[in-house]
Every structure is written in structure tokens, then in C-alpha cells.
Design a protein that fits this description.
Helices cover 38% and strands 16% of the residues. With 156 residues, it is an alpha/beta fold.
């Protein structure tokens, strides 16, 4: 059973990463980035669908007391303009990576994602493994969710 689950996870991961080829870099509107704390490693918070940086408020200051912490609004959230780029996990992971580089964040980082943000952080970790110290997923979206949405509700 273990081998089957591991094989399944690898297959889903490979399919996700193949879809990443050619994903563009992203918009880095700095007005929508919240950053605090200093101790390493930096904790990078990624909110779920429908949420922005504000959803992390209950834990942000507590994390900042012990680590550098970053929360940001993706395009289309928190008053930030929508993006022209596709909103798939690969593009969002590339946008986050570009933002962290622009901010000069020292790697490796701890990626934390809630719900759909968990999916984005998982893809980021898969694309940039050397930049990631740990991955924390809080009620993450299932790896097949993106494909299922595209199949069942393509307008989304």
C-alpha cells in the first residue's frame, strides 16, 4: 500500500510540474507585502482561495516574534489588481519565488500554505527544492483538485 501511495504522489507531482513549463515570472506589487521579524529561517505564508495576507493576522505577529515572516496578497486579493498571467499553481509559485528574490529573502525558507495556498506552496517546494527548509500544509487542497476544476468547471 505504501508503494502505491508513493507512486501515485510522484505521478501527480510529475504531472503538475510538467504543466509548469514556460510559466512566466510575476507582478511584485510591494504595497501588498507584509514583512516583520528577523530571525532565520523566514516563514512565507500563502493564504487559501478567497483570502489574502490579512487571513494570517491571528498568527503573523506571533510568528514574527521568533522568525522573519512574510505574508502577501496574490493578484486579485486585498485590493491588489488582478493579473493578466494565468492563475495556475506553477505561475503562482514562480511569482512567489520572484517576489522572495526581489525582497532579498535568504533561503532556505519555511513555506506555510492553507487550503489552495497549500497547493501553491507544494508546487513552489517542488520547483525550488534547494530554497525550502520545510513545508507546512494546513488543510491543503488535494493534488488532483486543479485538474478536476479544469475538467468540471473550466470557466473558473
Amino acid at each position: 500500500m505504501k508503494r502505491t501511495a508513493a507512486t501515485f504522489a510522484l505521478a501527480v507531482g510529475a504531472a503538475t510540474l510538467l504543466a509548469c513549463a514556460g510559466a512566466p515570472g510575476g507582478d511584485d506589487d510591494m504595497r501588498h507585502v507584509r514583512r516583520a521579524g528577523a530571525a532565520q529561517p523566514t516563514v512565507v505564508l500563502q493564504a487559501g482561495h478567497g483570502d489574502g495576507a490579512r487571513s494570517w493576522q491571528p498568527v503573523f505577529d506571533r510568528l514574527a516574534a521568533r522568525h522573519a515572516v512574510i505574508a502577501f496578497d496574490r493578484p486579485g486579493y486585498g485590493g491588489r489588481a488582478a493579473a493578466a498571467a494565468p492563475r495556475d499553481p506553477c505561475t503562482i509559485a514562480d511569482e512567489q519565488h520572484a517576489l522572495l528574490q526581489k525582497l532579498g529573502v535568504k533561503t532556505p525558507v519555511v513555506l506555510v500554505g492553507h487550503s489552495l495556498g497549500g497547493r501553491y506552496q507544494w508546487v513552489h517546494a517542488a520547483l525550488y527544492p534547494a530554497d525550502v527548509a520545510a513545508l507546512v500544509l494546513i488543510e491543503p487542497t488535494h493534488p488532483e483538485h486543479w485538474q478536476r476544476l479544469n475538467d468540471e468547471v473550466p470557466a473558473m
